[in-house]
């Protein structure tokens, strides 16, 4: 049976001693996770970091109480049993992975952690027939449910309206600097810079297949170039623009998307049908860029239209004129 479970024990096969040892190790891990979140958030979200430090201290107090109970019942030696040793036991996501997804994702993960732990203890309490163990596990479930109330209390004490507003502004700024700004630059480059070569090829050859090949080469090549350029020219440490890998990914992918948008219609064999659809896609792309500039970069809509739509139209016209010459 152990081989079928990858060497892990089934929860139903654990003794009361092992269940309590598992609870102790789980509380230790959760305290470390909260402390890690606090350390990661300290620079940009100091109020939330204070909340997570308080939650880490609360988990550590619960661990201490569990350890005292274990010593009274089973003696000083606590067997080593962790989450990964038990089949079907809830897992914790790596903190570095959750951290990459932003402050709201971290808060949601903390709520999930508390819910997972409470559900585990409730199910464990229902399984046991021993009165003392049932009471112990029931108490643990109530404590885990109470952790959310503790978190709410800490949040109320440390996250006033000013702190919440400041953290929301910081999160928005990081989103714009890390994802929106490089992605927008890539979309603009991919949508506008590839217009001339794609439509010059289209009107010079009037061949959908040839135009498609040129469009794919231009879009993918531009995406690779923009991605590497964005990632290499700024490591984000001084500028505060975030991970170069994220920025390079956003810029490279959106550059390729911008170019592919008006290249893929040439999968259609009929040249004029493909060209009409490609021209319509160009209009949609340029208006989308103008909207993003207005929505996230706070650029006035008329200025965005002049910068993007008029400029894109000129590049489009240049491509048509060169190809038709």
TrEMBL record:
Major localisation: membrane
Record's subcellular location: Endomembrane system
One GO location term (cellular component): endomembrane system
Keyword terms: Membrane, Transmembrane, Transmembrane helix
Transmembrane segments: 274-292, 304-324
One of the GO biological process terms: intracellular manganese ion homeostasis
Originating organism: Methylopila capsulata
Membrane topology label: Multi-pass membrane protein
Record's protein name: Membrane protein
GO molecular function: manganese ion transmembrane transporter activity; metal ion binding; oxidoreductase activity
Annotated ranges, domain Rubrerythrin diiron-binding: 18-154
């Amino acid at each position: 049976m152990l081989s079928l479970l990858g060497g892990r024990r089934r929860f139903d096969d654990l003794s009361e001693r092992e269940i309590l040892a598992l609870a102790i190790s789980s509380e230790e891990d959760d305290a470390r996770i909260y402390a890690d979140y606090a350390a990661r958030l300290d620079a940009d979200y100091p109020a939330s970091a204070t909340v997570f430090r308080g939650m880490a201290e609360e988990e550590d107090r619960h661990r201490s109480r569990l350890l005292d109970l274990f010593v009274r019942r089973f003696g000083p030696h606590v067997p080593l049993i962790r989450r990964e040793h038990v089949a079907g036991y809830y897992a914790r996501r790596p903190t570095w992975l959750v951290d990459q997804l932003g402050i709201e994702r971290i808060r949601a993960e903390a709520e999930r952690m508390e819910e997972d732990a409470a559900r585990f203890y409730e199910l464990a309490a229902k399984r046991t027939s021993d009165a003392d163990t049932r009471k112990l596990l029931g108490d643990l479930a109530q404590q885990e449910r109470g952790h959310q109330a503790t978190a709410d209390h800490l949040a109320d004490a440390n996250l006033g309206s000013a702190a919440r507003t400041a953290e929301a502004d910081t999160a928005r700024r990081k989103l714009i600097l890390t994802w929106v700004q490089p992605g927008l630059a890539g979309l603009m480059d991919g949508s506008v810079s590839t217009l001339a070569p794609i439509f010059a090829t289209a009107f010079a050859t009037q061949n959908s297949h040839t135009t498609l090949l040129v469009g794919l080469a231009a879009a993918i090549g531009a995406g690779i170039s923009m991605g590497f350029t964005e990632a290499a020219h700024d490591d984000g440490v001084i500028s505060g623009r975030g991970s170069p890998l994220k920025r390079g990914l956003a810029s490279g992918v959106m550059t390729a998307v911008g170019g592919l948008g008006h290249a893929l219609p040439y999968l259609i064999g009929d040249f004029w049908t493909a060209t009409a659809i490609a021209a319509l896609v160009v209009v949609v792309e340029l208006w989308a860029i103008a909207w993003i500039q207005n929505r996230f970069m706070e650029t006035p809509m008329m200025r965005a239209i002049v910068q993007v739509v008029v400029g894109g139209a000129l590049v489009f016209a240049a491509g048509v004129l060169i190809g038709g010459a």
